[in-house]
Design goal:
By secondary structure, this protein is an alpha/beta fold. The chain has one domain: Maf protein (Alpha-Beta Complex). The protein is 42% helix and 22% strand. It has six helices and five strands, in the order H-E-H-E-H-H-H-E-E-E-H. The chain has a five-stranded mixed β-sheet with strand order 2-1-3-4-5, sandwiched between helices. A hairpin with a 2-residue loop joins strand 4 and strand 5. The radius of gyration is 15 Å and the shape is globular. It starts with a helix and ends with a helix. The mean pLDDT is 97.
């Protein structure tokens, strides 16, 4: 399995080759995905930036997640990460053509608290918005908080690579 640095380099290579830009919206990873992307020299050629929207208020205020979505489905849901991914693209549309922006979003429960029987600790949703369409995937990771955050960021990079390779 490739490490995070190899995955980050591949994301950059794919984005540059396709003339696309990346924007991120993170909750439970607290900016780890953006950190991994920007660990590659030259990432300013394809990374616009991101938002750490840890609270529901931040999700609503900065990346336009609807209050009704959060109330109906919760922060850790397919619906929320899709709105997060769309919202982060909208936030950067004055800088780049929105059709050239890929939005990646993450929301989950890193633990050790916060889990429920329906959404146990380690439950994470990753969303992607692009001109080619929107998608979201749910993952269930194990381990401590740091491990869940690391697994989540790595999985988000892998999902993005898969999306860009199609």
């Amino acid at each position: 399995m490739p490490d995070e640095n190899q995955l980050s380099q591949e994301v950059g290579r794919l984005l540059k080759s396709k003339g696309l830009w990346l924007a991120t919206a993170e909750s439970c990873t607290g900016g780890l995905l953006g950190n991994l992307v920007t660990s590659v020299s030259g990432s300013s050629e394809y990374y616009l930036g991101g938002f750490i929207t840890y609270s529901n208020f931040a999700k609503e205020r900065f990346i336009s997640v609807r209050s009704a979505t959060l109330k109906s489905f919760g922060a850790v849901s397919r619906e929320t990460v899709l709105e997060m991914a769309r919202g982060v693209c909208e936030a950067f549309k004055e800088e780049q053509d929105i059709n050239k922006i890929i939005g990646v979003s993450i929301s989950g429960i890193a633990g050790p608290g916060g889990g429920t029987p329906e959404k146990p600790v380690g439950t994470v949703w990753v969303g992607i918005r692009s001109e080619a369409g929107d998608k979201a995937a749910c993952f269930h990771f194990s381990g401590d908080r740091v491990s869940v955050k690391n697994q989540t960021a790595q999985q988000a990079l892998e999902l993005l690579i898969s999306h860009l390779s199609q």
